[in-house]
Structure formats: structure tokens, C-alpha cells
Amino acid sequence: MRAHGITGWRRGSTLIGRPDFVFSRLKLAVFVDGCFWHGCPIHGTKPKNNAAFWRKKIATNQARDRLVTRTLRAKGWRVLRIWEHELTRQNERRLIRRLCAALCL
Fold first, then answer.
1. What value does the mean pLDDT take over residues 59-82?
2. The domain containing residue 82 runs over which residues?
3. N or C: more exposed end of the chain, with fewer CB within 10 A?
């Protein structure tokens, strides 16, 4: 974000769900969701060992993500969720466009 002149964010917020980046003045919470842990439809893998446990674990994570998003939005926050795979150089332009749109830059 710094390389693209995006400023005003903080890390380590105690906001519900512990967003990865918080733009307090704009009331924008940004979460970077890991492809495995949050069940990315493109890159999420389904382990064969202990499959029932992992299916339940990932489903629980997704349900918690939805609850956190709804709760923050009910409190007047905007929420941007980014998949881990979007952090590559290949996807950088698209990601910066999404961030700028969310920040209304």
C-alpha cells in the first residue's frame, strides 16, 4: 500500500474480527483471508486426512467471517475481504483498484 501512496491505515486493531488493516477515519476494515483457512473457491484445498474435521473447521471459519462482516456493517463500518492469492504481483493492479475504490481515492 505504501508503494502506491495509500496511507492512513493501522494494524493490530482490537476491532471485532481483528482486521488486518483498519482505516479508522473512513471506517473501513480490510481482512486478508488465507486461501486454506477460509475456503477460497479457487485455491482452497480439501485435506484427505481427517476430512470431516477440516470440513467443519473451514465451515466454522466461513460462518465467523460472515458474522464479523455483518456485525461491523451494522456498526457503520465498510468491510473489504481480500484473498491471500490476490497479494501476488500478478494481481497487484486489480487489488490496488479495489482498495482505491473502497477508499474512494
1. 97
2. 2-103
3. C
Give yes or no for residue 105 having a pLDDT over 70: no
Q: Which of 13-17, 64-68, 88-92 has the highest mean pLDDT?
A: 64-68
Residue-wise over 52-81: b if at least 16 C-beta within 10 A, else e? eebeeebeebeeebeebbeebeeeebebbe
pTM tops 0.85, yes or no? yes
CATH number at residue 36: 3.40.960.10
Pairing mode, strands 28-33 and 78-83: parallel
Structurally, how many domains does the chain consist of?
1
What pairs with residue 42 in β-bridges? Answer: none
Q: How far apart are the first and last CA of the chain?
A: 13
